[in-house]
Amino acid sequence: MMLYKMMRSAVSELGVNKLRTALTMLGIVIGVGAVIALMSVGQGASKGIAAEVNALGSNLLFVEPGAPGEETDTEGFSTASFTLTADDVEALRQSTALPNVEAVSAVSQIPLDSQVTAGGNTAQVTMTATDEYFMAVRDFELEAGSYFSAQDLDRKTRNTVLGSQTAIDLFGSAEAAIGQKVRINFGPFSLDLTVIGVMKERGASGEGSEDEQMFMPLSTFQARVPFARSPTGGQSVSQIVIKVDDSGKVDSSAEQVRSVLLTEHDFSEDFTVKTQNDLKSTAENVGKVMTILLGAIAGISLFVGGIGIMNIMLVSVSERTREIGIRKAVGARRNDILTQFIVETVVVTLLGGLVGVALGVTVALTIDGHEFGTGSSIGTAVTPLSVGIAFFVSAIIGLFFGIYPAFRASRLDPIEALRTE
Amino acid sequence: MIRLRNVVKLYRAGSVVVPALRGITLDIERGDFVSIIGSSGSGKSTLMNIIGCLDRPTRGTFELAGHDVSKLSDDQLAYARGRQIGFVFQAFNLLPRMSALEQVELPLTYRGGKNQRRSAMKALADVGLGDRMHHKPNQLSGGQQQRVAIARALVGEPSVILADEPTGALDTKTTADVMDIFVRLNRVQGMTVIFVTHEPEVASYTDRVIQLRDGMIVSDTVATSPPLGAIQEHEVLWGPGIKGLRPVLQSEAPA
Ligand SMILES: Nc1ncnc2c1ncn2[C@@H]1O[C@H](COP(=O)(O)OP(=O)(O)OP(=O)(O)O)[C@@H](O)[C@H]1O
Ligand SMILES: [Mg+2]
């Protein structure tokens, strides 16, 4: 029989028992919808992370403690990774082997949020201890006041620069913050600082917004905060950020930085040089893993939907045994019956897939930008790929779960089939 | 055209073997008009199913148009059903959701080929249902349903029409209508018609009556002079066309 005729008779067959058809489809609808919605969350996450990495600035290299490939806590506090020191930073600045390096900045960050208070107000911030080069390297700009100078670092002054949001949270505006005193608490320690500047808004880039931040001179941090010092008493830093003057020279500069530091470290590679692309691909991998995981979870529900379809088709075959007998009696061959039932199953799953795509896209668009009490908004991205995959998979599921019932139907003995009621 | 030699059909019901046919030897030629009679359980349906390529003999040979059917595969049997056989059942066996036209078209869709719709319409018109093409089975009377089933059997221009108690579910008047179609098919179109019946009056329409008992043929008689009632009824329904055929038939009858 022609495929077109089969599709038509399949559709009319499905129209006979509309409720059952709808319930059968529901499994696929939910499965496909879940695949699309959950994959959109995964893909939204990887896009978000990639955007965050871009927001760091451009043409950057990051040097972090720990050998390449070795999983270390890059923040440098909870592990014994104190292998980067102020001497390394100085060596990079002095080196003549780094023609494309524009600026080098050392950073020590407290990985957890710290609490800062001023007047009666409190804010959670990321504490970033750094030097006078940071602004230039990371492309930060000032909204008000001024940034640290070399003198602040020399004299270990208790000056601080606030992120734009932190200034607003504590003082209402950037201008109002200048000259004010703030107190930062690191667990049992606290430190009073004077605000000398406020950064311009960086815009939201997911979690750990760069606008909820506090900067202080690295030297002050190392002198005043006990756990910032390395066990050997050296002045360790948790990250060195390097700006390269040409996007085409990032990789070659990374290699040059590595050899300078290797010499400095007596050829023991206890540090890792990463480019922004490395960070991005790490982030993308995280996103990919997340997408695959979420997709797999949703895939299971699609599979369960498929089993439901198989169940219904088996019921349908036994209900229509007599019809099969009649068709065989007038000349239908095994393949005719087989194709008829497979086409019916595929039509159900494809229809279910279509509705599921609509549902999934709707859910993804609804979730997009909402926080759901997590504190950071969930971004979703529906790609044609995930829609394609969901649709294709639903067709495959129809084929896969339709084959067995159809096979059973095609093998029925015409006499036996005609005898059933 | 139909040659059965020592056909045995055994059914296994649990541990008991039921011999439904116990050595049937039979020849039916093209153009024959045959009825099969016998008490319930004598094996009539079993024999029809074998001749209709719906089932295979346990032993013995069955040749249809020169082919040994017992050697055919399932798909080849299906092919033979589609091309050679038109089967009419006591229970009509129509598909409840299809219109009369779609029912009749069904055998053709499995064969492929052109003008399927037109052939189906012609077959329906031939059985007098030209004005009922789009009716579903539940919108038709029993006699009309059986005529749809006959049209479905005819549409593929088979070489033999098999009918297993085609009038079993019909009253006397509709029985006559349906039988007249078979008579016309045989007399006018020369089609081979074999049917099973319980009723002697229905059997009297045919030229040859085969009687089964316990899976064996106990008599095979060729009617030399059909009962009067049957002839008169034909003359009333079909007029002189059919009447003119009668003498030919009588002279054909072998001794
Ligand atoms: N599938 C089967 N399994 C077991 N026994 C069967 C089967 N089909 C038929 N029989 C037996 O074979 C014998 C012949 O059956 P068949 O249906 O051919 O009889 P019949 O002459 O058509 O009877 P009726 O006039 O009642 O239709 C019966 O004894 C019946 O019980
Ligand atoms: Mg019977």
What is the topology?
The complex is a heterodimer of chains A (421) and B (255).
Chain A: H1 3-16, H2 18-55, E1 60-65, H3 86-94, E2 101-109, E3 114-118, E4 121-130, H4 134-138, E5 142-145, H5 150-155, E6 159-162, H6 164-171, H7 174-177, E7 181-186, E8 189-199, E9 213-217, H8 218-224, E10 239-244, H9 250-264, E11 271-275, H10 276-319, H11 321-329, H12 334-367, H13 384-410, H14 414-419
Parallel strand pairs in A: 4-9, 6-8
Antiparallel strand pairs in A: 1-10, 1-11, 2-4, 2-10, 3-4, 3-7, 5-8, 6-9, 7-8
Helix pairs in contact in A: 1-12, 2-10, 2-12, 2-13, 10-12, 10-13, 12-13
Chain B: E1 2-13, E2 16-28, E3 33-38, H1 44-51, E4 59-64, E5 67-68, H2 74-83, E6 85-88, H3 100-111, H4 116-126, H5 142-154, E7 160-164, H6 172-187, E8 192-196, H7 200-203, E9 208-213, E10 216-222, H8 228-238, H9 240-252
Parallel strand pairs in B: 3-8, 3-9, 6-7, 7-8
Antiparallel strand pairs in B: 1-2, 1-4, 4-5, 9-10
Helix pairs in contact in B: 3-4, 3-5, 4-5, 5-6, 8-9
Magnesium ion (MG) is lined by residues 44-45, 164 of chain B.
Write up this protein.
The complex is a heterodimer of chains A (421) and B (255). Chain A is of the alpha+beta class and 421 residues long. Chain A folds into two domains: 2-53 and 282-419, no CATH class; 67-269, no CATH class. Helix content of chain A is 54%, strand content 17%. Chain A has a six-stranded mixed barrel with strand order 3-4-9-6-8-7. In chain A, α2 packs antiparallel against α13 and α10 (276-319) packs across α12 (334-367). Chain B is α/β, with parallel strands linked by helices. Chain B has a single domain (30-53, 84-252), classed as P-loop containing nucleotide triphosphate hydrolases (Rossmann fold, 3-Layer(aba) Sandwich), CATH 3.40.50. Chain B has a six-stranded mixed beta sheet, sandwiched between helices. In chain B, strands 2-1-4-5 form a four-stranded antiparallel beta sheet, covered by helices on one side. In chain B, α4 packs across α5 and α5 (142-154) packs parallel to α6 (172-187). Chain A binds chain B through residues 1-2, 5, 12-13, 16, 322-323, 325-336, 414-415, 418, and chain B through 49, 52, 54-55, 74-75, 78-79, 81-83, 87, 89, 93-95, 97, 106-107, 109-111, 152, 156. Bound molecules: adenosine-5'-triphosphate (ATP) and magnesium ion (MG). Magnesium ion (MG) is lined by residues 44-45, 164 of chain B.
